[in-house]
Amino acid sequence: MKNPFGSFKRAAAFGAITLAAVSLQPLSSAQAYSDNGGPSTRVVGGTKAEQGEFPFMVRLSMGCGGSMYAKDIVLTAAHCVDGSGDNTSITATGGVVDLESPDAVTAKSTKVLQAPGYDGTGKDWALIKLDKELDLPLIKAADSDAFNKDEFTIAGWGADKEGGEQQRYLLKANVPFVDDATCKKAYDNLVEGEELCAGILDTGGVDTCQGDSGGPMFRKDDSDQWIQVGIVSWGEGCARPGKPGVYTEVSTFAADIAKAAAEL
């Protein structure tokens, strides 16, 4: 793993309470690493989401985001979890933009399935099985690359600036697609075909950041419904010019995710 002032995963420390769409900034070594040993992340340059705007979003107690893949399954990032197997330590919170709202709904994890073969590079997805169904809308996972273009929405309770604090309220922002050839100029270790880039290259200023890891990057499909095209994974700092955010390309792993969910 690179040092916190270079490329790092975007998971936050346990107990962080907010997620926002923001640029990544340098963190101290204490801030950059979560309890499970991975670095942290958040959203920069965002605005508060409206209640009910992204009802498929959930906050995970280890300091990551996630999306409702099924009524009792959350899709998140592989680097947010510590392997596969029985796990009752994670709490998923959803149904609200304010994490302190009494209207929040919660569920505990029972099992975790980390992407088979995950070694810290690419394949950054995982599923968390919950102990009960949550009455929350689901977001469809893209099963083709048809929507890997144009502009995406990012959201989270992560830091609102590089080195910043986790957020109480859900933040949102829009970021443009960055093609692989351009992204490779920023990151020569980009795993083409498994990772998708997005961000404002010339000025920076908008990005996911520490605490946003595992959350969805999404857009509208041809039916005007939200579809998830990415999972917040990593980047160099937060919202730096020339350094876009890197996201797991959901369409590449759609079949694997569906198979894993069925097994859970």
Automatic annotation (TrEMBL):
Coiled coil: none annotated. Gene3D superfamilies: Trypsin-like serine proteases. The keyword ATP-binding does not apply. The keyword Metal-binding does not apply. SMART domains: Tryp_SPc (SM00020). It comes from the Bacteria. GO terms for biological process: proteolysis. GO terms for molecular function: serine-type endopeptidase activity. Keywords: Disulfide bond, Hydrolase, Protease, Serine protease, Signal. This is Trypsin-like serine protease. Residues 43-262 form the Peptidase S1 domain. Residues 1-34 form the signal peptide.
